[in-house]
Specification:
The chain is an alpha+beta fold. Helices cover about 60% and strands about 25% of the residues. The chain contains three helices and six strands; from the N terminus they run H-E-E-E-E-H-E-E-H. The strands form two sheets. A three-stranded antiparallel sheet has the order 1-2-3, with no helix packed on it. A three-stranded antiparallel sheet has the order 4-5-6, with helices on one face. Pfam families: bPH_2. This is PH domain-containing protein. InterPro entries: YdbS-like_PH.
């Protein structure tokens, strides 16, 4: 029994030492976490902030491109035809003779109505030459529709 009591004392001493080592280890782990975490937080925080700003920068860039695209639309009423030009990087010009116009529509969807805009759409016999002029003031769109309809009727009567 003496040997058993001696083993219990040794086990108790070992367990007590483990608890003491564990308490010291816990404090050392906390100190290590602070020593590693603070520099990493200081060094990596700007990178995370930059990642958070990427969507904001993309939205601003998209707004700038949208404005450039919107300002690129032009139209000119010439003597015999309507010239429509658009595009920032790739310029595209469409010429629609007045005599070829079959239908001139003014449309305004919910978003266009919200911003006080309208679209004039020109239909011809050939589907490839249909043309659109978006972003007009509704009064200007109606004026243009009436003028193009009159010119189209006058030119088609002369054919």
């Amino acid at each position: 029994m003496v040997a058993a009591e001696g083993v219990e004392d040794v086990v108790a001493d070992v367990l007590q030492g483990a608890v003491e080592v564990g308490e010291g280890a816990d404090e050392r782990l906390q100190a290590l976490a602070v020593a590693v975490g603070v520099p990493l937080g200081v060094l990596l925080a700007p990178a995370w902030a930059a990642c958070a700003l990427l969507p904001v920068a993309a939205a601003v860039w998209g707004w700038v491109l949208l404005g450039r695209n919107w300002r690129s639309w032009r139209y000119a009423e010439r003597a015999d035809d309507l010239l429509i030009s658009r595009g920032v990087l790739w310029r595209e010009e469409t010429v629609v003779p007045y005599g070829r116009m079959q239908l001139v529509e003014v449309t305004s969807g919910p978003v266009e109505r919200r911003f006080g805009l309208a679209t004039v759409q020109l239909h011809t016999a050939a589907a490839a030459t249909d043309a659109t002029i978006p972003g007009l003031d509704p009064a200007e769109a109606e004026r243009l529709r009436d003028r193009l309809t009159r010119l189209g009727q006058a030119r088609s009567a002369g054919l």
